[in-house]
Specification:
Blueprint (H helix, E strand, L loop, with lengths): L4 E4 L3 H13 L4 E4 L11 E3 L5 E3 L10 H10 L3 E5 L2 E5 L2 E4 L11 H17 L9 H26 L20 H10 L11 E5 L5 H9 L6 E2 L4 E5 L4 E4 L4 E3 L2 E4 L3 H6 L1 E2 L4 H4 L7 E12 L11 E3 L9 E3 L1 H4 L10 E10 L9 H11 L9 E14 L5 H14 L2 E3 L13 H17 L9 H4 L16
Parallel strand pairs: 1-2, 1-13, 2-9, 6-16, 10-14, 13-20
Antiparallel strand pairs: 3-4, 5-8, 6-7, 10-11, 11-12, 15-18, 15-19, 16-17, 17-18
Helix pairs in contact: 1-12, 2-6, 3-4
Amino acid sequence: MDKNIVIIGAGPTGIGAALRLHQLGHRNWTLLEAGPEAGGLASTVTDSKGFLWDMGGHVIFSHYKYFDDVLDASVPSWRYHQRESWVWIKERFLPYPFQNNIHRLPPADTLRCIRGLLSAEKGKLLGTRPRSFQDWIDANFGVGIAELFLNPYNMKVWGFSPNSMTADWMGERVPTIDLSRIVENILLDRDDVSWGPNAQFRFPEHGGTGAIWRSACSLLPQERVHCNTEVVEIDCDRRDVTTKSSEHLSYDCILNTMPLDVLLRRLRGSQLDGVMSAADKLVHSSTHIVGLGMDGQVPQHLEGKCWMYFPEDDCPFYRATVFSHYSSANVAKPGQQWSLMFEICESSQQPALADPVQATIEGALNTGLISGRDSIVSQFHIRLEYGYPTPFLGRNELLDSVQPQLRERAIYSRGRFGGWKYEVGNQDHSLMQGVEAVDSMLFGVEEQTYFYPDHVNTRKETTRRFTLSRDA
């Protein structure tokens, strides 16, 4: 059957779906994007002074050869980096992961952390399954690390208490405990810097993260890609999509990537009350991106650092990225300027700041990231309504109810906010959710990424490969 597929959103998930359809030679599809260009939350903005800013601290890591192939086909020139992430705490930098480097803390705090770790190690013998993210933190790290770092940091990044969040999303997101390694690092006064799935990463030489998705979109037949085309209503009974300009498109299947709560509120049709009511139960936070572009050279104490975490209350941001380190082309005058990009959370429990830019500058001064205001030549700010899809208590049960009802109506809702699963919300996951949804629509192949996060996050998938024939 030549299914008529409508893709809503040209972020990584929508682009992934369209690329897969194009690769397979399936021609009956349309991609609708509300914004002026592809990219979504993975887009890049150039400010009035010529500095580039991503919509957050995106780091490219891949669990999939298919994703690697798309990157290689899309971007000709890359910068490669060894991850260096740090924690600013107690007026000093500690390498991340925090628990592996507690030897850098004041002795009393190091002892407090060790006592908590030993207590947590004894508690693991009980084998109790954590109900909340807070339970998981306490059970794995103990009270010392929880109170010093994990509790304040997670409140800052999520905007919600760990007590109100499930532990199901964890996977490889937070490094767990190797007690013998921690003790060795203390005794040897040894730093332990690189960890995790993105210990090495690459970044586009030009154009920021957004260059990936603009270029990937250019591989598609442009007559099927429609930007500045917002979907405002979906009639599930008539299988009809209505755009803001009152255009109507029929469909056999929809791949939706707009936020799930927005999608649910735009559905029309019979027997939808139970589905639409779920929109008010989904929880998310917003993100403020603040950029500071500076004249001069990056300070010596920041050289080589990629990004830094800030758990304390001496600054409003939870993370700062030395964005000029990723590529010299991220500044207006390479070699003469540098840049810092900051992220600030806003939620119902963490209200918006009156002036995020000035609060960020004060925080950057407080934490020693900058030494003064005189060198600042560019100030950038944007608020993203949808920053993080919160893994709230009851999230899985809600999704397990909503998603099958959408599938009954031939709607696949996938992506960072379309699927509302943070644990598979990176760019590689998001693209593959689109690819796998297409394979499910056309061939009935079971999707892996969306439904089995723990499985896909512990291996590299190499069976699917992306290529475009000359006839595609």
